[in-house]
Amino acid sequence: MADETENVIRVGSRKSELAMIQTRKIISVLKEIYSEKEFQIETMETIGDKIQDQALSKIGEKSLFTKELEQALAVKQVDMIVHSLKDLPTTLPDGMVIAAVYKRDDPHDAVVFHPRYAGKTLRTLPSGSVIGTSSVRRVAQLKKCYPHLAFKDVRGNLNTRLRKLDDANDYSALVLAKAGLERMGWNSRINQVLGPNECMYSVSQGAMAVEVRADDDKMIECLSKLQHMDTILECVAERALLRKLEGGCSAPVGVYTDIKEGELHLTAAALSLDGSECVKMSMSTRVDFSSSEIRESDNKQVYSSIVAPGKCSEALKAVEDLGTDLAIKILENGGREILEAAHKENIQNVQQKPL
Ligand code: DPM
Fold first, then answer.
1. Pocket of ligand 1 (CB under 6 A)
2. 340: helix, coil or strand?
3. How far is the C-alpha of 204 from the C-alpha of 12, rounded, in Å?
4. Would you call 228 exposed, middle or buried from its count of C-beta atoms within 10 A (0-12, 13-18, 19+)?
5. Beta bridge partners of 96
6. Of 135, 153, 164, 186, which is best to mutate to test ligand 1, by the most ligand atoms within 8 angstroms of its C-beta?
7. From the alpha carbon of 249, which atom of ligand 1 is closest?
8. Which atom of ligand 1 is nearest to the CA of 254?
9. C-alpha span between 217 and 140 (Å, rounded)
10. What is the pLDDT of residues 212-240, one digit of tens each?
11. 87 catalytic, yes or no?
12. Average pLDDT of the chain, as a whole number
């Protein structure tokens, strides 16, 4: 690298407004710590951005929002990529690692109603009202909870979706991640927040992550300052679960995680696409291993593709095992058949509606 570029860090991002807001947020936090560094954003389009007229679960590509960015990272065109962690597959390409997970925002889903339904809730919407979402996880849980509602795919970035809601009469409401709506500054459009009894959230929802090359010790060291311990404990557990369930971003799997009094509690559910079948289970583990010493090797350990901050390898190992064990319990109690059937149905949908 030439001398004058020594201080320039190139950051890869998708072009959408939400992606740019997230990337700028991470850069502003880094700028506060490393005021001498310059950050340059390189934007890219991913398959997920290009294909706007198909439901995510029907495209059938696992790393929809990440592939092009990771290719740029591999050839050193960029030094880091800022993602929504929930869009990162549970297994990263060889040579890539998550060097930081930033403090999680509220992970719950939220409902935005068409202005004509101001004051309503999902429960009080008229029968047959159409809810826009392309998430099989949301559809399955909400069908189970609110059988009087209908569901329809909606694609496009957040700006496009809100415009579709407001300008046409196709949808009565949209279900979106609360964190994304808040980052866009649309707090005032949030009409209802969905609790875990209605709709458990997606693995890693609400957390932003920074991906780097696994051999880039300088970047890993630089990003270690961003790490947020409770967020990492939650996301390692959730990602270990999803990995064992072999569910990608299109699986009808919801989670709910909570850390209280030194214990992490993870609840997860696998559902059939129509929500009629559901296996929901919970497990807990201690995470307050305060006595653990810092070992040199700990800094290089990776749990669910996330680089461990030093000093907490016992807790990280415990939550990774917890996620895997809970997945096994769910699979053994009927979850396997439910997820296999959902996967088959998804594939059939792709074949019926080729790209
Ligand atoms: C993934 C899903 C969706 C995104 C599937 C799911 C939602 C797709 C849809 C894996 N990624 O959640 O069950 O609504 O059609 C995405 C959003 C955010 C990150 C937007 C959203 C923002 C919040 C965050 C798309 N990825 O879910 O409303 O950082 O978690």
1. 56, 84, 86-87, 133-135, 137-138, 176-177, 179-180, 202, 205-206, 249
2. helix
3. 20
4. middle
5. 213
6. 135
7. 10
8. 13
9. 42
10. 999 999 999 999 999 999 999 999 999 99
11. yes
12. 90
The confidence score (pLDDT) of residue 352 equals: 62
Dihedral (Cα; 181, 184, 187, 191), 10-degree rounding: -30
Please state at what angle helix 313-330 crosses helix 229-245, rounded to 10 degrees: 30
**Which tokens in the block code for residue 116?**
């004509």
Per-residue DSSP letters for 143-184? HHH-TT-EEE---S-HHHHHHHHHHSSS-SEEEEEHHHHHHT
Q: Model pTM? A: 0.93
**Helix, strand, coil % in the chain, rounded to nearest 5:** 40, 25, 35
Between 328 and 51, name the one with better pLDDT: 328
- 85 is written with which tokens? 């962690």
Q: Which atom of ligand 1 is nearest to the CA of 137?
A: 13
Predicted local distance difference test score (pLDDT) of residue 355: 45
pLDDT at residue number 3: 47
Return the residue whose CA atom lies nearest to atom 6 of ligand 1: 135
* Per-residue model confidence as pLDDT tens digits over 17-49: 999 999 999 999 999 999 999 999 999 987 777
The residue type of 296 is: E
CA of 269 to the centre of ligand 1 (A): 17
pLDDT at position 301 over 70 = yes
Task: Give residue 2's pLDDT.
Answer: 45
